């Protein structure tokens, strides 16, 4: 039964809370003592600079327990649990003169991966930021990067995503995975520029069959681990990394942006028949977006061209074709505290006749124009302590859907909770959302922040 399996996680959570409440303050006191000693020996010290003596602690974090289970049995996966973990987050951020240092680390006990280390340690941020000049910033290290205008639809945002966390029911923050990158930002009156170089390719955390089953075109059936999906990674040479560019400017209250990317598809959507492994084919993209006020709400449009570098004519059935993708969205408050947002999205696959001709499963390929509509409803009540939300993806061409109803309640300044469901469905078991129908689930989380 699920409840007994949760008991060890509650015990671990209590231990982590104790550590969380004691460690930061002790460490901060030691750090402050060291800083005070250094200040006393500094011959250039000046007590009249007017700095605040009671500086807020640079340490923060949270402790969270989370559980998720499928709404029905999945014949391809042994366990019904999709989430069963206790998590400690430690955060540190502070300035040392003009130098900013940021750290975010997660220490997780995950019942679904207890065959590995007892406590899984992951760094979400280990960042140094400084300004080489008055109108530029440089970010070095592990960081979470994002841009674009879509709501859970990513066109020009080709930074890594964690789809396992998203489908499992972890907090929405974890959909964005970190990158080990260098980001340079330059600001001027003509336009602002962001340039991101990722020396070693950072892929999405994609579905491998360990927690969730999926449709495999090679097997022509739904599959799950074992074995998990094996992949061939890009090389680690400097010219095999990723480069992303954004040029943006606010004109008359509208945010305009141009984008460029050179790297790889973020999931292993290609297959090498020689070694039997999936791999990440090369990808280049160019795009643009605009966002601004429209008819009492906020509207946005975004477009991107994906150039599949390894299959320019679409004749290789094991490599995805080039695509043109377009997004249009609108958000408005209908009545006080009730917000509605709508999005229309389309993927136009190029060289579609060649795709159908050479595909081993031509009847299971998506339509040339794949359409997707999203709807988000948010309602806030009780002084914003309670939030009711519903997000729905629906594809009229695939005839499938993904619905996410969710209730969030803030019990106090430190305690918060969330419950929700992930509901998949579709006419066929090989479409984007239809393949996950057996993975529909319920999840709940309880968090204490400090």
Cα end-to-end separation = 32 Å
The total count of strands amounts to 23
Question: Tell me about the biggest sheet?
Answer: 18 strands, antiparallel, barrel
CATH class label? Mainly Beta
- H and E string: HEEEEEHEEEEEEEEEEEEEHEEEEE
Helix content: 10-25%
| Sheet/helix structural class | mainly beta
Question: What is the overall number of helices?
Answer: 3
In words, what does this structure look like?
With 450 residues, this protein is mainly beta. The protein has one domain: Porin, CATH 2.40.160. Helices cover 12% and strands 48% of the residues. It is built from three helices and 23 strands. The chain has an 18-stranded antiparallel barrel. β20 and β21 (400-410) form a beta hairpin.
Reconstruct the topology from this structure.
Layout (H helix, E strand, L loop, with lengths): L1 H39 L18 E12 L10 E16 L2 E12 L9 E14 L2 E8 L19 H6 L10 E8 L5 E7 L15 E3 L4 E3 L7 E2 L9 E10 L2 E11 L5 E3 L4 E3 L2 E13 L2 E12 L14 E13 L2 E12 L2 H7 L10 E13 L4 E10 L4 E11 L4 E12 L14 E9 L1
Parallel strand pairs: 10-14
Antiparallel strand pairs: 1-2, 1-23, 2-3, 3-4, 4-5, 5-6, 6-7, 7-11, 8-9, 11-12, 12-15, 13-14, 15-16, 16-17, 17-18, 18-19, 19-20, 20-21, 21-22, 22-23
């Amino acid at each position: 039964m699920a409840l007994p399996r949760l008991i060890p996680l509650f015990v671990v959570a209590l231990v982590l809370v104790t550590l969380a409440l004691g460690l930061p303050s002790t460490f901060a006191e030691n750090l402050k003592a060291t800083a005070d000693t250094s200040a006393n020996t500094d011959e250039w010290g000046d007590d009249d600079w007017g700095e605040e003596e009671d500086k807020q602690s640079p340490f923060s974090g949270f402790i969270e327990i989370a559980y998720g289970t499928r709404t029905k049995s999945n014949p391809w996966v042994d366990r019904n649990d999709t989430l069963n973990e206790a998590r400690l987050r430690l955060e540190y951020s502070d300035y040392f003169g003009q130098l900013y240092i940021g750290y975010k680390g997660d220490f997780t006990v995950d019942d679904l991966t207890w065959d590995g280390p007892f406590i899984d340690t992951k760094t979400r941020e280990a960042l140094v930021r400084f300004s080489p000049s008055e109108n530029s910033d440089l970010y070095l290290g592990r960081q979470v990067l994002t841009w674009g205008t879509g709501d859970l639809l990513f066109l020009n945002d080709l930074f890594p995503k964690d789809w396992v966390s998203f489908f499992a029911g972890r907090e929405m923050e974890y959909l964005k995975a970190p990158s080990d990158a260098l980001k340079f930002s330059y600001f001027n009156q003509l336009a602002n520029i962001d340039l991101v170089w990722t020396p070693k390719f950072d892929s999405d955390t994609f579905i491998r069959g360990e927690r969730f089953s999926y449709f495999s075109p090679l097997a022509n059936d739904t599959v799950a681990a074992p074995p998990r999906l094996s992949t061939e990674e890009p090389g680690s040479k400097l010219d095999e990394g990723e480069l992303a560019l954004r040029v943006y400017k606010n004109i008359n209250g509208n945010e305009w942006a141009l984008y460029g990317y050179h790297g790889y598809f973020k999931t292993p959507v290609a297959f090498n028949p020689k070694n039997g492994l999936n791999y990440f084919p090369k990808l280049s993209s160019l795009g643009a977006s605009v966002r601004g006020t429209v008819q009492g709400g906020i509207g946005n449009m975004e477009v991107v061209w994906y150039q599949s570098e390894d299959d320019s004519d679409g004749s290789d059935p094991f490599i995805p074709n080039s695509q043109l993708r377009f997004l249009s969205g609108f958000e408005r408050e209908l009545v006080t505290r009730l917000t509605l947002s709508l999005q229309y999205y389309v993927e136009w696959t190029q060289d579609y006749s060649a795709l159908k001709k050479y595909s081993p499963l031509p009847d299971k390929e998506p339509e040339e124009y794949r359409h997707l509509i999203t709807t988000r409803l948010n309602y806030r009540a009780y002084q914003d302590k309670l939030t009711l939300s519903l997000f729905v993806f629906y594809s009229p061409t695939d005839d499938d859907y993904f619905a996410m109803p969710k209730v969030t309640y803030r019990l106090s300044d430190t305690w918060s909770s969330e419950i929700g469901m992930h509901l998949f469905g579709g006419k066929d078991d090989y479409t984007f959302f239809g393949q996950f129908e057996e993975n529909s689930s319920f999840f709940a989380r309880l968090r204490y922040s400090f």
